[in-house]
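Hi R.,

Here's the chain you asked about this morning:
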Amino acid sequence: MEGLAEVPHEDTARVGAPPGFVHRHPRGQARQERTTCFYRGFKYTRAWTSSRKIAYRCSRFRSGCRGTLEFTIATMGFSAVRPHTCRDAVPAPGRIEDVTMEMMSRADALAIEQVARPARQIWEALRDEFYGAANGNVVRGLSELQVQRRIYRARHQHFSGDVHGAIEIPPLSLALDEAVSFFQFHYVTINNENLNKPTRLLGWAHPSLVNLLRYHGATLFVDGTFHCVPRGYKQCVIFMVHDRASGIFVPVYYVLSTSRSGDSYWDMLHFVVQSTDQQLEPAEV
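And here is the predicted structure, written out as tokens:
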């Protein structure tokens, strides 16, 4: 499972802690991130520090496990002092491997490549990759909190802090398992009913299905849902076309709208027509 992950502390330098360690006394999750570490599947909690060593105990010590791990200042190495009783223990070697920079690079890359993946899942993937049981070294790197913050920051910078920007560029703009754009348009128009809240329209369609709208005399069916929409939007309008080959109506366009006004429907139809190079000439709607 996990290797050993240690977050730097500051004040411990006064009692002989390793160089670069930073010790603070934050609360809640931030404090937990600075007082826990991982090694070969065991989670340790920092128990006490002195001028000679930093002692960690198994996180299951309340259940009776006596497993401990110590960092000795003189040798700058870790050693297992007491074996675990919660399960079979693995002796700790003395070498320390710092993977902080590698984890930073991987976190930044995965934040953009897998933008739809929750930050928690990316952390779990990085934890298994860098702190996994296959690694026989004591490993120092980023904590869960540090990884998640880095993911959020990378996404914010890449998409300019705009939630709509994330769906306008790959990978979220692409069709599933295809290198074609499912995202078609994003327009903001005036809202005559409330000038302070312009109408926002977002449209998605598969390019192959858009071609069905180009047939002369096609039959369109327009439907809308008002419940299954993201916060801030009033409706999702679906444009369906009658497929003559199969004899059924095929959903082609999905348009999110922040308005239910008549003008918004005309705007949707206008943008759908423009996407067909103005070749849409339906016989019936």
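One quick note: Residues 1-33 have pLDDT under 50 and may be disordered.

Cheers,
M.
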